[in-house]
Amino acid sequence: MAAGWISKELAIILVPFITLVSGCIIGYFAQKTGFCAIGGFRDYIMFRHTRLLNGFIAMIVSAIVAFFIFHLITPMAFENFPWLVTKGVLSAVPGAPADLSQMAYIILAVIGGIGMGVIGVYVGGCPLRQFVMTAEGSMKSLWFVIGMAVGSVIFYLITAGFVVGLMKSVGL
User: What start and end residues bound the annotated signal peptide (predicted)?
Assistant: First the structure.
């Protein structure tokens, strides 16, 4: 594999800085544009408005381009990129900790996507939008963000083992 433009040691130092700067830029634009992935689908389905949906598509394209650029800069940090091309579209993400079958990951992704969509409709936006509204001073969004953090820890500590065990017991 090619060495890339910078060493892996330097990449380890630069990644947190680049992540922080990128997060600030993304947060700024998300706040200025009112970006919301769930709101984009909602507006398109209900009103045929595509402004927020175009932002969602731009986010996906930007992420793919950014990963490609980072892969060129330091390929050692992105050994399995692009995993959709190298491993197949329905393959598990490399390094997934549960070591389940492809079908199990698809089922879990669909369940998680439906759950996030339903919850996002109830709370009025996707998690990114909730973070932006928290930064704008919304207490309702702050409680959502706190609940999301606590829920993630509880899921990992308690529920994740049960879900993996259940998937393996049914042969997935």
Answer: none
